[in-house]
Write a structure and sequence with these properties.
The protein is built from twelve helices and seven strands. The chain is α+β, with helices and mostly antiparallel strands. The protein has three domains: about 1-145, Globin-like (Orthogonal Bundle), CATH 1.10.490; about 150-215, Helix Hairpins (Orthogonal Bundle), CATH 1.10.287; about 225-374, Heat Shock Protein 90 (2-Layer Sandwich), CATH 3.30.565. The strands form two sheets. The protein has a five-stranded mixed β-sheet. A two-stranded antiparallel ribbon has the order 1-3. Strand 6 and strand 7 (about 360-365) form a beta hairpin. The chain is elongated. GO terms for molecular function: kinase activity. It holds the Pfam family HisKA. This is histidine kinase. It catalyses: ATP + protein L-histidine = ADP + protein N-phospho-L-histidine.
Amino acid sequence: MEAIRGQLVFFLENNVSAFIKSWRQKAFISESDIHKEEVNKNGLKMYELVKGMLENSLSDDDFRELAYKVAFERAEANINIGDFVYNVNSGRSEIIKWVISSGLPIEKLHPLIDDISAIFDQFSYYVVKKYTEIKEEQLQEKILYIDQTHKERLTILGQMSSSFVHEFRNPLTAVLGFAKLIKSEYPDIKYMDIIEHELNQLNSRITQFLHVSKKELMNGERESHSLYELFNELLEFLYPSIVDGDVTIVSNMKSDIRVYANKDELRQVFLNIILNSIDALQQVRYKRKINIDCHAVDGKVEIMISNNGPVIPKERMDLIFEPFFTTKELGTGIGLYICKKIIEKHDGEINCISDHHVTTFFIKLPLLIPEETA
């Protein structure tokens, strides 16, 4: 067998130019390929690696070095990796054809042909694997760049909107003040309740936008609050919306669970999630239900607000806590974003899972109360 190997190496050495020319005629090389001049060189190096295998002098380092070189060139040229695989298979076919035409006994050549084919398979594997790694790294870099650009645009948008609403709030505050004075001095004037209510709604919207821009946060003092009492007050306030939405709410709250928090901020979080749940349940024809559960685990209070409404698709699930993302016709897309910021401000976490049976918002908050408030 050693003699056959030597004769085959001698044959290949004497026909290298003809092989490269024949393979080059079949290979697919794009004119836009910035490394097209390297293709012939790589084909020649592969030819040398086959000879090295036949001489039992093939180096694994040399083999990987060529594979990684080709992978980087294919990625940099931005050429379809399928073209590379086609060219490798063409090279395999050509060299096997030349081996068979060497005139050596075919039965002696079969194991060598198998070895040659295995080299090409392994070479393709290394190149495609490294090419995939390079492309994945490039993709992650692009995603990072897009995310950074997106954040920068949001920052600019937040700065613009905050400047606008700050300018808008000054006259609004004055109007609210004078409306209260008019109502106090002339309590019988018609429609003053409606005017005051709408002004307060507008002021609430402005506060939400200021939350998003981070220019203004509710900075009220944190105190010890009973979640049981907070939810009871909230559900009493929401009673008209619950009845109007034909929703059943089941609350399993323990009266002894307390948190150290800003009550108004937590109220805004729970109010937003429950109202969103009521809204989502309008797509369900019967047995509309919201479950509120709460329990303490390892120094944390876990609150779960679930509804049996429609599933939130995965592509939307990744975006629901992003600012300005909304599926509602008249939505602002800042409600859940504000909820997330408030919970994180309280050193907590908020997440959501959804399937075709139930959608649940999970909220974790610190359970322990600081010593000075105990």
